[in-house]
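Hello support,

Our group uses your service weekly, and this is the first time we've seen a run hang past the timeout. The protein is PEP-CTERM protein-sorting domain-containing protein. I'm not sure whether the cause is the sequence or the server load. Input pasted verbatim:
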Amino acid sequence: MISFNPLTSVSFIGTLGLVATGTLLMTTPATAAILGEISISGGRVVTRVIVPGVASTPAQPLDFAVPPVTSFNFANIGSGNPTGTGQFLISYADGLFSSFNPNGTVTRGTILDLDPMGDMTPENFLSFGDIRFDLMSINPGITTPNSDGSGVNISFAVEGIFRDTVAGTSYRGYGTFGAEITFPIAGASNLNQFYTRLQQSGRQFTVQSWSANLVAVPEPLTMLGVGTALGFGAIFKRKLSKKEEN
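Update from on-call engineer: The timeout came from a worker crash unrelated to the input. Re-ran successfully.
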């Protein structure tokens, strides 16, 4: 479940000004439109594979499922950790949220005040609830080898609910989550090699960078429809392309 708590007036997030990354449309009850969108991204998270029952020394461990599956748990993004935001450090946040009015007007609001690296990180800035991304089942998503062959770039769709706790309203949300996952050595860009390393307890790997692009809509839309409007994964793909060119 995606929780997104907007304020009732346009403001700023620390030193990051909120700018809409897409066009906000005037809506009527019969017209579906994107009400708002948010883009967030962050830096490195180093961890080790933990296979339950097999001894290992984790470094900044993420949450893992029972063997042989290894997964990320996104529940702690924006958990109120004063040094970052839970398991994933947010280094960039940009978005604008609007509440839907049946009369056809759009009231703009913003993300809760957030200094990504400060001590005022709010609870539940963004929460995926119980949703886990299974690293052993990345085939359905977009997967490409990274530039030096030491890992993979992934991108997959997520959906949930944006909640406006002030107004007590909810909106269906869609989006994408992408990340670059690497190992300290090369030879992990082939999916079979990648899976093998993920099952070796104590094997260190790093989430080098990650990003998420999410939108809220006033009524259900198809993933294809929202994807066309948003350009799923565009920001993440541009970042990866730019990184690999450097």
